[in-house]
Specification:
Elements: H1 4-32, H2 42-55, E1 69-72, H3 86-98, H4 111-116, H5 119-124, H6 126-138, E2 141-142, H7 143-156, H8 172-183, E3 187-195, H9 196-207, E4 214-226, E5 229-240, H10 246-254, E6 261-264, H11 270-277, E7 285-290, H12 311-319, E8 322-325, H13 326-329
Parallel strand pairs: 1-3, 1-6, 3-4, 6-7, 7-8
Antiparallel strand pairs: 2-5, 4-5
Helix pairs in contact: 3-6, 7-9
């Protein structure tokens, strides 16, 4: 007959063992879900299925690790792009900071529009006006000086809606996705219409993507000796626009391999997804992030000047691309 003392001792051991099993099972479930901020809907399943196919040795879709290239647009795909692109917000702040040195700007467009807060007039200046703003505020200095200006601006600037640093307004589900792909042997690249030297100073800290894996638009740069110091000087001339049809060109020039997975959110990413997925061969993945969540972020697609998703959305159903409904497919948008 078991004593009361022994009974309590055995019961305690059983309880501890049961608790240990429960904890281990819970931990295993948690570890098995590499995308916890994604709802268990079709897009998450499509991504996981794709990764499993291309990483399984012996599979007809197996892709060697060296060829597992995934490319990501930045604005609207990895972080917020509304109400205006972050780089444009930076340029507007630079105009205001430099204005005391340029009194003529008060009567010269598009600078006059910026200083008066006249966004209608700024938009009316068109692409030419916006390029002039970028060239004026991003050039005429060394690359090192520009990098410092960028870092200082990101340290102090705040998004007008969320009142948070821009580098905190990255999408948590996409951060998880980047980590998941890298854990499965993928090399992840940013391929953005944004300025390459605007992104490189912070991309590794925020996304885990090193500077050499950032592809973007650029202005012309030349080597100069200044006070016996070798420098790279930024000129007010466009070198390369990494947007729309420019994205496949940028990928070819900078990466040298055709990606097997591409992620975007707008018509500016259409050609990148076409280049990635319409090549034949092993399994390929094209994904569009559809902004449908006006409460947690923004809702927009065809009727916007910023991040328009129109032609690419129509192409998705024909090409078989995965469309992520932000409201339905993401448990959360930003990291808490």
């Amino acid at each position: 007959m078991i004593s009361a003392r022994n009974f309590l001792h055995v019961s305690r051991r059983v309880a501890l063992a049961a608790a240990g099993c429960f904890f281990a099972a819970t931990l295993a479930v948690a570890q098995s879900d590499a995308l916890p901020s994604w709802n268990n809907t079709a897009p998450k399943q499509a991504i996981i299925s794709f990764v499993e196919k291309v990483t399984k040795p012996g599979s007809g879709d197996f892709v060697p690790e060296a060829e597992r290239i995934a490319v990501f647009d930045n604005d609207g795909t990895l972080w917020v792009e509304h109400p205006i692109y972050t780089q444009l917000a930076f340029a507007l702040d630079r105009v205001k900071a430099l204005a005391p040195q340029h009194p003529e700007w008060r009567e010269t467009q598009p600078f006059k529009a910026v200083l008066e807060g006249d966004m209608k007039a700024l938009v009316a200046s068109g692409e030419k006006g916006l390029v002039e703003l970028i060239m004026t505020t991003h050039a005429g200095m060394t690359s090192s000086d520009f990098q410092k200006i960028v870092i200082d601006w990101f340290a102090s600037a705040r998004d007008p809606k969320f009142k948070r640093p821009y580098t905190e307004l990255v999408y948590q589900p996409m951060i998880e996705l980047l980590a998941y792909l890298r854990a499965n042997g993928f090399k992840t690249f940013i391929v953005s219409g944004g300025g390459v030297e605007m992104m490189r100073p912070w991309a590794e800290k925020v996304y885990g993507i090193p500077p050499e894996q950032v592809v973007g638009s650029s202005i012309k740069t030349e080597f100069r000796m200044q006070d016996d110091t070798p420098t790279l000087f930024r000129l007010p001339e466009v070198n390369f626009i990494d947007d729309k049809a420019g994205k496949p060109v940028g990928i070819n020039q900078h990466i040298g391999r055709r990606p097997i997975a591409a992620f975007g959110n707008s018509d500016g990413d259409l050609q990148m997804l076409q280049w990635t997925t319409m090549a034949g061969g092993p399994a390929r993945l094209g994904v569009l992030i559809h902004h449908t969540d006006a409460e947690r972020e923004y809702a927009y697609d065809r009727d916007t000047e910023i991040g328009r998703l129109d032609k690419a959305l129509d192409a998705a159903s024909i090409a078989g691309w995965t469309v992520v409904d932000m409201k339905a497919d993401w448990k959360q948008v930003f990291k808490d």
